[in-house]
Each structure stands twice: as structure tokens, then as C-alpha cells.
Fold this protein.
Amino acid sequence: MPVLLDSLLKTAGTVILGKDHQIRLAVCCLLARGHLLIEDVPGVGKTVLSHTLANLLGLKYQRIQFTSDLLPADIVGSSIYDGRNHSFRFQPGPIFHQMILADEINRSTPKAQSALLEAMEERQVTVEGETRPLPEPFFVIATQNPNTQIGTFPLPESQLDRFLMRIELGYPDSLSERALLKGEDRGTLLEQLNPCLDESQLHDLMERAKRVHVADALIDYVQALIRYSRESGSYLAGLSPRAGLALLHAAKAWAFIDRRESVLPEDVQAVLPAVAGHRLHPVEAVLNAARDCVTPLLTQVPIP
């Protein structure tokens, strides 16, 4: 199974050049059964990375373009009248797929964004009083542009907290950008991608990542990080219990990718910016990047 993971990471790296760390974080997020938010300026490969992961994981996926006129019914579905049977029939929306690519999620109104709340947390949707389960596994990979850009609606904290990780791609380095400019079109490369995993193999990998051992001393470290975020006065609000679970699940998946059977403090530190960066709001507004935001946690909380 680790060979499959190596193939997945290597193949994704042939499409998204020079972003091995971000690709690994994205795969780690999915192995931890979490949803992924990719935030950056337009044109750096957010949507391409989403399509790459969807193709390589071999899941049934649907891309939803979020716009200002999108309605919740456009996402979850609605009942339509069937003239032949003289009755209403539920027409499922695009959310009834194993993977949803929510493109530019913050260009839709909060009303449309709210259609994902129940789906992301409970993996089900309630429409017209009836609850319908979503496929298993179910992932949301969303992209968003910086909130300083025109036509964006900030995601509320309750929506942000549903994403296990938020990552940024950034501009490529000089060599990667040169290879991109001289290489094949990304759309053509996406069409040529074959799945590296099937559904049963992905499920097995997720189960194995879930069983990675966590020592009591590691739990103490995670609790110390959570306690510092709440009591230090550096943040407007500290990390929630759900954030603590997310940090632990992500660290286990990171250790699993490294082919280790136990979580190390370094695993927690590796995923901390992506897991906690969008959940913490520092008192000092100048600390806005994910890495800067969690720097006090990384430097002030001792490793046991």
C-alpha cells in the first residue's frame, strides 16, 4: 500500500510542479477523512490540484462553480413535478458525489455556502424534511480567492471550521515555472491521468492511517498546544475540541505517509499551520499568514 501512496504523490507532482509539500498536505488531509480548502490568488493551480486529486483517487466527482447567483437547491437538489405520475420526484443535486470540487467557494453568498454545512459535518443532507445520506467516502475540496479581491464573501467561522486543512500554493520557483512554460498544457495532462487507487484501496489506506499509534505524551503535547491557544492571550479565541481532533487525525495521516507506526511531535508541527491557521485569529492583526499565525504555538509550547 505505501507504494500506491508514493505513486499518487509522484504523479500529482508531474502536474503541479514544485509543490510537493502542498500535495503531501492535501493527500494527508484526505487520508484523515477531512475536507480541504485551497486559498490563493487566481492562476496558481488551485483548480488543477483539485482535479488532479479527484482523477488520481478514482472517485466519482463533480465540480460546482460557485457564483453570486448560486442557490442551495443548485447544490443539494430539489423536488420536481412529474407530469406522468402526477407527483413530485426528488432530483439529487451535484453534492451526491464522492468528491465535490467547490470552485471559488467564497464567490457565492453565505446562503449558498450554508448548503455545505450539514454535508461536510454529518455527510448527509436534509431536503424538504427528509434526510438523505451522501456517498462514502465523501470529500469536499474547495478553492477560494483572497477576501481582499472584488466579488468575494468571507466564509463564516462555522464554515471554515468544517475544513480540516487550509493550504496555500503560492507562486512556483523559477525552475518549476520554466518547466511549466515549456511543458505540456495542464488540461491535456489531466485528461491523461489514470487513477492510482480504487475505492477499496483508498478505504484501506484511510483505515490504516486511523490506526497509527498515539502515545500519551503526544496527547499531552496536543493538549498543551490547545491550552496555549486559549490562555496565552495571543488569539481572539482558542482552538476548539474539534480542532484538536483534526490536528491529531492529520498528524496520524502524516506519520502514515512517512511509513511510521507512531506519531511524533514533528508530525504535529508539520500539519499545525494547515490545521490551525484558518481557525485562529491573532490579536496582532499583522500575523495573518498561516505559518505566522501558529508561530507562537510552535516556539512557546515545549515538546514533551
